[in-house]
Design brief:
The complex is a heterodimer of chains A (about 450) and B (about 525).
Chain A lengths: L6 H15 L6 H22 L1 H9 L8 H7 L2 E2 L8 H6 L2 H11 L14 H10 L3 E6 L5 E6 L1 H9 L6 H4 L9 E5 L8 H12 L2 E4 L14 H17 L2 E6 L1 H14 L10 E4 L16 H12 L6 E5 L8 E3 L4 E3 L5 E5 L5 E2 L3 E9 L9 E11 L11 E3 L3 E2 L10 H6 L32
Parallel strand pairs in A: 1-14, 4-5, 4-6, 6-7, 7-8
Antiparallel strand pairs in A: 2-3, 8-9, 9-10, 10-15, 11-12, 11-13, 13-14, 14-15, 14-16
Helix pairs in contact in A: 1-2, 2-3, 12-13
Chain B lengths: L5 H15 L5 E3 L2 E3 L2 E3 L6 H8 L6 E3 L2 E5 L8 E5 L12 H6 L6 H14 L5 H12 L8 H11 L2 H12 L6 H6 L2 E2 L8 H10 L11 E5 L2 E5 L7 H11 L3 E5 L5 H13 L10 E4 L6 H7 L7 E5 L2 H10 L3 E5 L3 E6 L8 H12 L10 E7 L2 H21 L6 H8 L7 E5 L7 E6 L13 E7 L2 H7 L4 E7 L1 H13 L4 E4 L17 H4 L2 E4 L1
Parallel strand pairs in B: 1-6, 9-10, 9-12, 10-11, 12-13, 14-15, 14-19, 15-18, 17-18, 19-20
Antiparallel strand pairs in B: 2-3, 2-11, 4-5, 5-6, 7-8, 8-21, 16-17
Helix pairs in contact in B: 1-11, 4-6, 4-7, 5-11, 14-15
The chains are: A alpha/beta (about 450), B alpha/beta (about 525).
Chain lengths: ~450, ~525
């Protein structure tokens, strides 16, 4: 890594992560100190080189941020940062404006030749020439997020997980690849899960992709032939005795399990088959519990594919973060030492305690080129009690969900103005008293109500 | 003359006593089902505690719905009756309805509305009892509750109901009320159909005389109202609209507004269980999307109209599950268009007028202006933002705002991180804000409250092109531009186009969301 970050701390965190994953003792104080040094160095870099970050410091009158609690309390930035561009620029192919946007939200100051650039892919390639690795993800809104990484940050994204992930130790996607890969998500170059799929496919001996039908398509397209081809792929692999890795989102895996089970055709998967799911549970189908519940999916994969709980790993991550969380068999997503994670309340105040629920936030010491003090769009329950699996440190329990989002208002207020009623006399409006809409008579947040 | 029955008054007196007897930990509040108050059971404490662990409120234990009285620690719990037996909420006998509520002179119904308004007077026994109870629960500490109670009573005002009916349902010289009570003879020429005229030739007999007895009537309907949570009186307004046209109404009440609902339920009970209005009105609590309840209520013959207010998801969900005719109040928003030259000598005057459109219901109303498009150069836009900030500051001083909350913070630290901000108060305790944004803004991300997004454009036509039917109201300045743009804006689906500062104006019978609502709530039937 070439970034001017404390390399001793970087190495220390990676080593600590490896030890942590092996259930060996880790000096928590030193880990915390290493993270703090990196994060404060990042803060200084952001302040010096990221215009929107500098403006935020000015507006919030934060001249001196001395420690991590201050960062967490005052400088969390919503992941909306990564889509704070004008959608019209993309629609119009105005990549000059998009490039200027990159320079406002990151440490980069790119000046690529944009002659002839017409697509996002072409723009991305030109930025690559400037040393910018642009990650892309599409959220539930459909609006693309762009995460501009420099070489160091991109390297961290590619390698951090190796320090604590059994996926790597098992020889999958490592330097000794010898496995078949069944992808239940399309490979791609930039989008989060699809990029992972591309990486896995590149390392695999053989790979096969099965894309489940879109549940919103009516009628669903015939997937019988594709399923037959997939089962043939699995049988052929089983005959060689080669290991198998299955990768996809939980709803896609649930669909595949159900289809395979309904076919009634026996496919004896290799005993060390590994199932990796990721991408969250937000594509869940209401009529299929296995697509929305880890417990139900675990039962389904055991029944239909014979994959045991210890051979299934669910991953929680996000495209803006350079590490991910793995779910253990006890249903906990463990925070690795390379990350600082916590939850905040509705006022964005960090919550402390052994068992707290709120919006998930993180401080990513490896986000060298963009603000890595992030407020996610997810809600979770964070616990610190020892986990039966033996991993130490905080972890999120099953049930990470999308945080309630602000939605455009129903036409409620106009009910009064459009009603066949006389206007409320102005004398009824006591000055120094908030108007009606500010005054629910009881106060559970509306977002949690039916 | 009062329409209250002795049975109703006894029911009310009993209810007032029961409310006063509520204990400090769990409070029982009634629902209302076709003339009768319905009280919830109180689950055992351990079941309540277990339910709390199951997720955010409201919680359900058996047939009881539970909400915390307030957001503080150790808050008392309010028990409400869950609409577990949904079939009880459906009118079982339309024949009876035709003989009872539908046959009641509409003036009598309006008189009953007036009676309800008097019962809900802030100085009356019902409001006094409910506020006494809420005060015990610590809710009355919320400032400004008084104004809600005063507005609640006014919603039932019968004169306005009559004026709206006459305006919306009337035809020619005939007032609307005539169509609600009777078959109104058709004025003018009534012609036989083509088949009848053919029959004259086929059967060689004269055509049956037509015209005699031909008439038209606004037949009341059975209505399910699924109401929103964003303002406390919207569900009441929806109910009163339905009652105004003699509708048999079931209203899904947002659980957090249970004190208001308790008061309305008590007032309805005072009419007595056999009163035509009360005996065909219900107030229910259930979780939105509960299939056990809603599959019954959304069945094809359960109601004649489903009135749905709310967010896009709620509306789409209901639409996908019912074939009943729906009246939709979709999520919409307002904007402001300020043409070149608006900020001549008195930018403050324009800013104050524009602020009025943005401050409607503290931006919780679908007509509140969230974005001001200004046709100006950068310097003028900045000057306007400063003026708007000053106007909002004066409003803040007169009418204290609710805290900006996380949504505004998220905006500042996320989607609008590149904006130039003009705020009143200090972060994070900002009371109102103006954000001059350098790019388009997704209205769906607006936090409400007192936050105005300002976008500079070279020509207002750029802004006009961005508007669609998701925009309900547009205030325009100067007036000449209003006259020039209103046809274009209307053609794009905007349903309220006024000079700036006037988007909240109204009159009896005024169309809403492009509809004459009362007309949508009756079935226009001919004879």
């Amino acid at each position: 890594m070439t970034v001017d970050a404390p390399s001793r701390e970087i190495a220390g965190l990676l080593i600590a992560s490896r030890l942590w994953a092996e259930r060996q003792p880790v000096d928590d104080e030193r880990v915390r100190a290493a993270r703090a040094n990196l994060l404060l160095a990042n803060h200084a870099r952001y302040a010096a080189t990221i215009p929107v970050y500098r403006q935020l410091l000015t507006d919030l009158r934060l001249d001196d941020v001395a420690d991590i609690p201050a960062l967490a309390a005052d400088l969390l930035i919503s992941v909306d940062l990564f889509k704070s561009y004008d959608e019209a620029w993309l629609a119009d192919g105005n990549f000059a404006a998009m490039t200027r946007w990159v320079s406002e939200v990151s440490t980069h100051a790119p000046d690529p030749d944009l002659q002839g650039v017409r697509t996002v892919a072409e723009w991305r390639n030109r930025l690559r020439g400037e040393g910018i690795y642009l990650g892309i993800s599409s959220g539930s809104s459909g609006r693309l997020s762009f995460v501009p990484r420099d070489r160091a940050t991109a390297a961290a994204l590619a390698t951090n997980g190796r320090s604590y992930s059994p996926l790597m130790w098992g020889g999958y996607a490592s330097a000794e690849p010898d496995y078949d890969l069944l992808l239940l998500t399309p490979p791609g170059r930039a989008l989060g899960m699809q990029a992972v799929a591309t990486g896995l496919a590149a390392q695999a001996t053989r790979s096969h992709t099965l894309i489940p039908p879109d549940p919103n398509e009516e009628p669903a397209r015939d997937s019988g032939a594709a399923l037959t081809a997939t089962l043939d792929f699995l049988r052929a692999g089983a005959a060689t005795g080669r290991r198998l890795l299955i990768y996809g989102g939980p709803p896609a895996v649930a669909w595949f399990c159900t289809q395979a089970h309904e076919r009634g055709e026996d496919v004896a998967l290799p005993p060390d088959t590994l199932l990796v799911t990721g991408g969250g549970w937000k594509g869940a189908r209401a009529d299929d519990p296995a697509s929305s519940s880890p417990a139900a999916l675990g039962e389904l994969i055991g029944r239909s594919l014979g994959i045991t709980a210890e051979r299934w790993v669910d991953v929680y991550g996000m495209s803006e973060c350079n590490a991910y969380l793995l779910r253990c068999q006890s249903g906990r997503y463990h925070v690795p030492p390379v990350l600082e994670m916590f939850v905040v309340d509705d006022d964005l105040t960090p919550l402390s305690g052994p068992d707290v629920t709120g919006t998930i936030a993180l401080l990513d010491p490896f986000a060298f080129s963009y603000p890595g003090f992030l407020l996610t769009g997810d809600r979770g329950r964070l616990v610190t009690a020892p986990c039966p699996c033996g991993l130490a440190g905080p972890g999120f329990l099953d049930g990470i969900t999308r945080a309630p989002q602000q939605e455009l208002k129903g036409c409620a207020g106009a009910a009064l103005s459009a009603l066949p009623l006389s206007a409320l006399p102005l004398s009824a409006l006591p000055l120094s008293t908030p108007p009606s809409s500010a005054l629910p008579l009881s106060t559970p947040p509306s977002s949690t109500l039916p | 003359m009062s329409v209250l029955s002795s049975v109703g008054q006894a029911q009310l007196a009993d209810a007032l006593r029961r409310l006063d007897e509520n204990g400090p930990a769990v409070v029982r509040a009634p629902g209302f089902v076709r003339g009768l108050l319905r009280w919830p059971d109180v689950p055992p404490a351990h079941e309540i505690e277990a339910a709390k662990l199951g997720g955010p409120p409201p919680w359900r234990v058996g047939d009881t719905y539970l909400v915390p009285a307030h957001a503080g620690p150790e808050a008392p719990v309010v028990a409400l009756p869950y609409a577990a037996v949904a079939s009880q909420l459906v009118e079982p006998d339309t024949g009876h309805l035709a003989r009872c509520l539908y046959a009641t002179p509409v003036q009598d119904v309006w008189n009953a509305l007036g009676e309800l308004g008097e019962l809900l007077d802030p100085q009356g026994a019902i409001v006094a009892t409910v506020t006494r109870m809420t005060r015990r629960l610590g809710i009355a500490a919320v400032p400004g509750a008084d104004i809600l109670w005063r507005m609640l009573a006014s919603v039932f005002e019968p004169e306005s109901a009559a004026a709206a009916v006459d305006a919306e349902l009337g035809h020619g010289a005939r007032p609307g009320r005539a169509y609600l009570d009777n078959w109104v003879p058709v004025d003018g020429d009534v012609r036989a159909g083509a088949t009848a005229r053919l029959a004259q030739a086929v059967f060689a007999r004269p055509v049956t005389p037509v015209g005699a007895g031909a008439g038209c009537r606004a037949v009341p309907t059975r209505q399910l109202h699924i109401t929103p949570t964003n303002t406390p009186l919207a569900w009441v307004a929806s109910l009163v609209r339905g009652l105004t046209v003699k509708g048999s109404c079931l209203v899904k009440v947002p659980a957090e507004y249970w004190p208001l609902a308790t008061a309305v339920a008590l007032a309805l009970s005072a009419l007595g269980p056999h009163h035509p209005l009360a005996s065909h009105t219900s107030l229910g609590y259930w979780r939105g999307g509960d299939r056990a309840v809603e599959d019954v209520l959304l069945a094809p013959d359960a109601f004649d109209r489903v009135v749905v207010w709310g967010g896009g998801q709620a509306i789409a969900d209901v639409r996908s599950r019912t074939s009943i005719r729906t009246v939709l109040f979709e999520p919409r928003a307002g904007v402001t268009l300020l043409g070149r030259g608006s900020f001549g000598d008195d930018v403050d005057s324009v800013a104050e007028r524009a602020a009025v459109d943005s401050l409607v219901e503290d931006q919780a109303a679908c007509t509140s202006s969230l974005v001001h498009y200004v046709e100006a150069d950068e310097a003028a836009a900045v000057r306007y933002c400063g003026a708007l900030q000053r106007a909002l500051a004066r409003w803040d001083a007169a009418l204290p705002p609710r805290p900006a909350g996380r949504a505004l913070l998220r905006l500042r630290r996320g989607a609008l991180i590149r904006a130039q901000w003009f705020v009143n108060g200090d972060w994070p305790a900002v009371t109102s804000a103006v954000a001059l944004v350098p790019h388009r803004f997704d209205l769906g991300g607006h936090p409400g409250g007192r936050c105005v997004v300002v976008r500079r454009v070279e020509d207002l036509s750029e802004a006009v092109e961005m508007l669609d039917r998701g925009v309900s109201a547009v205030g325009v300045h100067p007036e000449q531009r209003w006259r020039e743009l209103r046809d274009q804006l209307a053609a794009r689906g905007v349903t309220t186009v006024t000079p700036v500062g006037q988007t909240e104006r109204r009159w009896p019978g005024m169309p809403h969301d492009g509809m004459r609502i009362l007309s949508e709530l009756v079935s226009w039937t001919v004879c």
